[in-house]
Design a protein that fits this description.
The protein is mainly α. It has six helices and three strands. Strand 2 and strand 3 form a beta hairpin. 16% of the residues are buried.
């Protein structure tokens, strides 16, 4: 079954990530729960709308005084992390392409490392060889 696409805010992605580390106490359960949120650098009052939406979407579950990231929420979180990593890798490759005229060996090595045809050790060894 394909993973549905969700447009989430950065604070909602942060809540998913925090829930993967450890269940969050439901901030509605009292002061101790709100203090835990503050300790994790989260703002319980401003996050209630985010939590409600995440629960509605099935990405977070509310049970027993805590909030936990569901399997669907974990999949959405990891897909977003994967997409962000792909974007960074693409930026590195574009940088290597832009530097190809001035550093052709480095550019080619970065390109092959990015596409998986070289390991890091092979790439480093190739750069150490004299031209």
């Amino acid at each position: 079954m394909p993973l549905p696409h969700f447009e989430l805010s950065s604070s909602q992605y942060r809540l998913l990530a925090e829930g993967l580390l450890r269940d969050l106490p439901d901030p509605e359960t009292g002061e101790d729960a709100r203090q835990d949120w503050h300790a994790r650098d989260l703002e319980p009052q401003s996050s209630e709308a985010d939590v409600s939406e995440l629960v509605f979407l099935g990405l977070v579950a509310r049970a027993g005084g805590s909030l936990s990231t569901t399997a669907l929420g974990a999949a959405v979180h990891y897909r977003a992390a994967h997409e962000a990593a792909e974007e960074r890798l693409s930026a590195v490759v574009r940088l290597a392409q832009a530097a190809e005229d001035s550093h052709p060996r480095l550019a080619g090595t970065v390109w092959r490392l990015a596409d998986g045809s070289l390991s890091l050790d092979e790439a480093l060894a190739g750069l150490e060889r004299p031209m």
